[in-house]
Specification:
- This protein is α/β, with parallel strands linked by helices and about 220 residues long.
- The protein contains five helices and six strands; from the N terminus they run E-H-E-H-E-H-E-E-E-H-H.
- The chain has helices at about 30-40, 65-80, 115-125, 195-200, 200-215, and strands at about 20-25, 45-50, 85-90, 135-145, 150-165, 180.
- Helix 1 (about 30-40) links the parallel strand 1 and strand 2 (about 45-50).
- Helix 4 packs across helix 5 (about 200-215).
- The longest helix has 16 residues, at about 65-80.
- GO terms for molecular function: dITP diphosphatase activity; ITP diphosphatase activity; metal ion binding; nucleotide binding; ribonucleoside triphosphate phosphatase activity; XTP diphosphatase activity.
């Protein structure tokens, strides 16, 4: 059963997670680690889909939430446990929202984000997007919490900023080295994890998830 309140901050009618093991439907170690840190204060025993040997499903949705739900439901049914999936990406105004839901694919089969970041910069230069005003960017995160019976709760968070070049910092993953959030002079990859977790797109989505499904009334 799909929750009718996808992306909502409203706290009623949400199914609650009651603690214990939670499958993190990802094979990305950086993402699994970050999700584990964001849930550290709760009664959660995270285990990744990779550790369980679960296959990665085909992500053929046309939105972040659609792809997050595909992954969460596949992991929940495959492991017969509640599963949490994150589908996130980097979206640039000058590239009409690209790479967007294809952010991981821009890194190629080897998940080489140095290549992906260079591709972003090349595309921005092709369009003459060289000033901060032309390099506006967002990180977007969709979270889906799915149960083996098919119920799913989904939420979406965002953070706005600017694409910078060259890449800076080594604390993050993915496109973090080229994203400088609004109001800051450092990239996500230059921030300490605690600082990033407090204001990132993933943190925004997690606040909604936690309020609705962990400690909501």
């Amino acid at each position: 059963m799909r929750s009718p309140a996808t992306g909502s901050r409203h706290l009623s009618n949400h199914r609650k997670f009651d603690g214990g093991k939670l499958v993190v439907a990802s094979h990305n170690p950086g993402k699994v680690r970050e999700i584990g840190e964001l849930l550290a204060a709760f009664d959660v025993e995270p285990v990744s889909a990779g550790e369980l040997g679960l296959p990665e499903p085909v992500e053929d949705g046309d939105t972040f939430i659609a792809n997050a739900e595909i992954k969460a439901l596949a992991a929940a049914t495959g492991a017969n446990r509640i599963a949490l999936s994150d589908d996130s990406g980097f979206a640039l105004d000058a590239l009409d929202g690209a790479p967007g839901i294809f952010s991981a694919r821009w890194a190629g089969p080897t998940k080489d984000f140095s290549f992906a970041m260079q591709k972003v910069e090349d595309e921005l230069q092709k369009r003459g997007a060289m000033t901060p005003e032309r390099r506006k960017a967002q990180f977007i995160c969709a979270l889906s919490l799915a149960w083996p019976d098919g119920h799913v709760e989904s939420f979406e968070g965002r953070v706005s900023g600017t694409a910078v070049w060259p890449p800076r910092g080594d604390k993050g993953f993915g496109y973090d080295p080229i994203f400088m959030p609004d109001g800051y002079q450092v990239t996500f990859a230059e921030m300490e994890p605690e600082e990033k977790h407090a204001m990132s797109h993933r943190a925004d989505a997690f606040r909604q998830l936690i309020n609705a499904c962990f400690n909501g009334e």
